[in-house]
Design brief:
Number of strands: 11
Strand content: 5-15%
Structural class: alpha/beta
Number of domains: 3
Strand order of the largest sheet: 6-5-4-1-2-3-7
Mean pLDDT: 87
Helix content: 55-70%
Number of helices: 19
Shape: elongated
Length: about 475
């Protein structure tokens, strides 16, 4: 059943909340922008900003399919007008007006509009509408201040250290159980959790050739990839909020797509045995997405298909979770950009004056996203990709000392994605014979990627400003 409420204020909010809780489809028309923003955030309703006496606004609220219309604006003349429009022109079956001035109640009744002069009589008035026997159960009219208490988690250094220590203890003991010596276990624990990927063997994790060790490493890489707030919610077994997190969704989606593709394009044909093939497909994709850089294989093998290499490049560009130890664009930003596409499509479908609130889940609460947030995210993505493209061009335009030819575009794309995302995987470009300018380029890329670009740029800008001021003061002093 479709209900339209025309009005503003906290009474509208509580009344709408009751209707929604009973499964009614609701539209709210309000002329107050702040109220519209509030309703759109906390109510599952179509919110239209505008004048409820405007036929175009009523049409956007889908008045043609409404079963009930309630006029409860602060102006009796507006309530009368919208109720008459709904009754006489749109043929809405049930009309009710809330009259602010009790003396006007008789006027409404003479014009055939069911009206009440006080919120205290609202339920009694609706009792007479036999078609809506349940509606008296749905109305709660309360004068007061409404607010939503949002629980939050303070991710203090103490909590982070406890989580980190827990990861370390788990990894260290598990590695020891499956054959690593204490030094190797401690080293690989630290570098897996920090998504650093350093190892003391040239063939990385592939040196051990052990499925249990690979599973432990995958687990540690995923834990290191997680936002610490999400990890904290996991320890509290608040799985509802864990799985509502956009980063968890994008992480699972990317792996669900990437693992089968890498298996089909490369692992199935290059390696023998289903177990080995699956181990390669899973481990390499997780390592690339978490920007850890551990590996079981050598990407220099020409049988590694271009399609698989491209998939790993895309995963390294996306990177890990925000507020984690991982690098890359960060899954949060990618999720936000994808959500913004959905929001734009939804906006084009909804009525022109509809008011919506865009949000993503952050921990146990909704984080509302405004245009400024989207602009900041877009700026970072554009800057990141521009830097990536520039780095790829520089590497591709350089001569490989080993062959005397330019580096291939494939190798340049892979290597610089790895550098900018602080991953550490390589197709062989980075070596002792690599030209000096490429080494410096990769060093700068790792620094920019780790410090998130703007930190470096702001520091340089302020440093330049301070140097300018110092020279200016020195020049004035010398005069």
């Amino acid at each position: 059943m479709k209900v339209i409420i025309a009005g503003s204020g906290i009474t509208v909010y509580f009344l709408a909340k009751r209707f929604i809780s009973k499964g009614y489809t609701l539209s709210i028309i309000s002329g107050d922008q702040d109220d519209c923003d509030y309703y759109s955030r906390y109510l599952k309703a179509l919110v239209i900003k505008g004048d409820s006496t405007d036929p175009e606004i009523l049409a956007q609220a889908d008045v043609h399919s409404a079963h009930i219309l309630i006029g409860m604006t602060s102006r009796d003349q507006d309530n009368l007008a919208v109720c008459q429009l709904a009754k006489l022109y749109y043929k809405v079956p049930r009309i009710l007006a809330v009259v602010n001035d009790p003396d006007n109640e008789e006027v409404f009744l003479k014009l055939g509009i069911k009206a009440v002069s006080s919120c205290n009589f609202l339920i009694q008035s609706l009792d007479s509408l036999t078609v809506l026997d349940e509606i008296k159960q749905q109305i709660s009219v309360v004068e007061g201040k409404g607010y939503l208490i949002k629980p939050h988690v303070i991710t203090s250094a103490r909590i982070v250290m406890i989580l980190y220590l827990g990861y370390l203890i788990y990894g260290f003991i598990a590695y020891l159980i499956f054959g690593m010596n204490p030094f190797d276990a401690l080293l690989h624990c630290f570098t897996a959790i920090s998504t650093g990927g350093f190892g003391n063997y040239g063939t990385s994790i592939g040196y051990f050739n052990s499925p249990p060790i690979e599973i432990i490493t995958i687990t540690l890489m995923i834990l290191g990839n997680l936002n610490f707030l999400t990890a904290y919610l996991m320890t509290k077994q608040k799985w509802y909020y864990v799985f509502r997190n956009g980063e968890v969704k994008i992480f699972a989606l990317l792996l669900a797509i990437a693992i089968p593709l890498v298996y089909l394009f490369t692992a199935a044909s290059l390696y023998s045995g289903l177990g080995k093939q699956l181990r390669i497909a899973v481990f390499e994709t997780v390592s690339a997405l978490t920007t850890t850089g551990f590996s079981l294989t050598n990407y220099n093998n020409p049988l590694w298909s271009d399609a698989s290499i491209l998939i790993l490049i895309l995963l390294m560009l996306v990177g890990g979770g925000a507020c984690s130890t991982a690098g890359g664009l960060k899954q949060y930003r990618v999720y936000l950009m994808l959500k913004s596409i959905f929001w734009q499509i939804r906006k084009s479908i909804l009525p022109r004056n509809a008011v919506t609130s865009n949000y993503v889940w952050e921990g146990e609460q909704k984080e509302y996203v405004n245009d400024s947030k989207l602009l900041s995210t877009s700026n970072f993505v554009v800057l990141y990709m521009f830097t990536y493209a520039l780095g790829v061009l520089i590497i591709a335009g350089s001569i490989d000392p080993a062959t005397g030819m330019h580096y291939s575009l494939r190798n340049a794309m892979f290597e610089f994605a790895s550098s900018l995302g602080t991953v550490g995987l390589s197709v062989g470009v980075t070596s002792l014979s690599t030209p000096t300018h490429i080494i410096w380029l990769q060093t700068a890329a790792m620094l920019l990627g780790r410090l998130e670009f703007f930190v470096v740029f702001i520091a340089l800008a302020k440093g330049w400003r301070d140097i300018g001021k110092a020279f200016g003061s020195l020049f004035k002093g010398s005069r």
